[in-house]
Design a protein that fits this description.
By secondary structure, the protein is of the alpha/beta class. It folds into two domains: about 160 residues, Lyase, Ornithine Decarboxylase, Chain A, domain 1; about 170 residues, TIM Barrel (Alpha-Beta Barrel), CATH 3.20.20.10. It has twelve helices and 21 strands. Strands 4, 14, 15, 16, 17, 18, 19, 20 and 21 form a nine-stranded mixed sheet that branches. The longest helix is centred in the middle third of the chain and has 20 residues. The model has no long low-confidence stretch (mean pLDDT about 95). Bound molecules: pyridoxal-5'-phosphate. The site of pyridoxal-5'-phosphate (PLP) has 18 residues, from helix 10.
Length: about 425
């Protein structure tokens, strides 16, 4: 279990902070996302401590978990926010984020989103193409204002992680190719309604090796030199997110301090303010999904299936990235070990949480916890198979708050017109 401090067994019962999770399953039903508020706070503070020597602003990446209570927790800690759509901007503002602590990303911003960002007075928008520069200029002109923008640079570094979550190489759609940065500055110079304020990169997610960051940062500093040679001031230098967490205790992620030790010497003497965009690192290990074992079955070869009431609709990561999540019964006792697939009830072969996994034997009607579900879990949930989105609760010591109600059948069709 990668989250011992906030999820732990006491007297053979799984707890989240001061609450027995069995009580939560009984009170709120399953599937249920259970989030530890203090796990989020602890990770945020750890990140802040690691990068304390730098003049920096941490902009939590809202896409990892956008529940309003999660965002509010981070607003209260003083965090900034990295948003990737009008909807995420709306959420961050609703949670009480200060616009000057919000940065707006996205490779496919619509004019409406650009207008929303300008009117909200966000710190800057990150621009990913020359066409987008032109559109932001046009929108700002129509609004009779200037829009602060940063260029997202694709440093062309292949970070070692799952191919679907690497973003910083020239095969990928993200950012402006570092080789073409000169063109971007020439284009920028033509637009009166844009104010260049900085540079950004984001090379991927769940990156274990510091070397990728260093390589990318050297490239970014190269682009900074180009900017300055053309008379642009780089006020913000944004290193992106991607800092890893441990999903599997046998494959522990490097500590955040390993990254800060390597990055700080390169960034310490920069006049620019340094920005970070961690998502997974802050929330990944702060939630579990509680789910009930509905059925067990065995095929003629003796292969086991454990069928639970959560599914890919609550956690897409195993299907999308063959991601590993620890799965354990919430009650610890002497049990045989079985090898089994753990699957959901959706009509897709890819709807699994684990394949051929060794787990303590579980019975129908029992509950298991799927760990490390805080990042890219609830935010990727869907209504596929017309399933209802689950409830979410947040635990703070011995207090429990329902932070998202379970969806109803009525809500499922509320926007449809017959
Ligand atoms: C631009 C950008 N910043 C930050 C993040 C957050 O990444 P992570 O959750 O790995 O820290 C992402 C994730 O996709 C991203 O696209």
């Amino acid at each position: 279990m990668p989250t011992d401090d906030f999820f732990y067994y006491k007297k053979d019962q799984l707890y989240c902070e001061g609450i027995k999770v069995k009580d939560l399953a009984e009170e709120f039903g399953t599937p249920l996302y259970v989030t530890s508020k203090n796990a989020i706070i602890a990770q945020y503070r750890r990140f802040e401590k690691a990068f304390k020597p730098l003049n920096h602003l941490t902009c939590y990446s809202v896409k990892a978990n956008y529940n309003l209570s999660v965002l509010r927790t981070l607003v209260q800690e003083g965090s900034g926010f990295d948003v990737n759509s009008g909807g995420e901007l709306f959420r961050a503002l609703k949670a009480g984020a200060k616009p000057k602590k919000i940065i707006f990303a996205g490779v496919g911003k619509t004019k409406a989103e650009i207008e929303f960002a300008i009117k909200s007075k966000v710190l800057f928008q990150k621009v990913e193409s020359l066409s987008e520069l032109r559109v932001i200029d046009e929108v700002a002109k129509n609004l009779k204002t200037t829009a602060p923008i940063a260029l997202r640079i694709n440093p062309n570094v292949a970070a070692e992680t799952h191919p679907y979550i690497t973003t910083g190489n020239d095969e990928k759609k993200f950012g402006i190719d570092e080789m073409l940065a000169e063109d971007a500055f020439s284009e920028l110079a033509k637009h009166k309604h844009l104010k260049f304020v900085g540079l950004e990169m984001h090379i991927g997610s769940q990156i274990f090796d510091t070397q990728s960051y260093l390589e990318a940062l050297f490239k970014l500093l190269g682009v900074k030199a180009i900017a300055e040679s053309k008379g642009f001031t780089v006020k913000y230098l944004d290193i992106g997110g991607g800092f890893p967490i441990t999903y599997r205790t046998t494959q522990p992620a490097p500590d955040i301090e390993v990254f800060s030790e390597k990055l700080i010497p390169l960034l310490k003497n920069q006049s620019a303010q340094i920005l970070f965009e961690p998502g997974r690192f802050i929330v990944g290990n702060a939630s579990v999904i509680l789910t009930e074992v509905l059925y067990r079955k065995q095929n003629h070869r003796g292969k086991n299936f454990v069928i639970v009431d959560a599914a890919m609709t609550e956690l897409m990561r195993p299907m999308l990235y063959e991601a590993y999540h620890d799965i354990l019964p919430i009650e610890r006792k002497e049990r045989e070990i079985i090898i089994t697939d753990i699957v959901g009830g959706v009509c897709e072969t890819g709807d699994f949480f684990a394949l051929d996994r060794e787990i303590p034997e579980v019975k129908e009607g029992e509950h298991v916890a799927i760990f490390s579900a805080g990042a890219y879990g609830a935010v990727m949930s869907s209504n596929y198979n017309a399933r209802l989105k689950p409830a979410e609760v947040m635990v703070d010591g011995k207090k429990v708050k329902l932070i998202r109600k379970r969806e109803t059948y009525k809500q499922l069709i509320q926007n449809e017109v017959l």
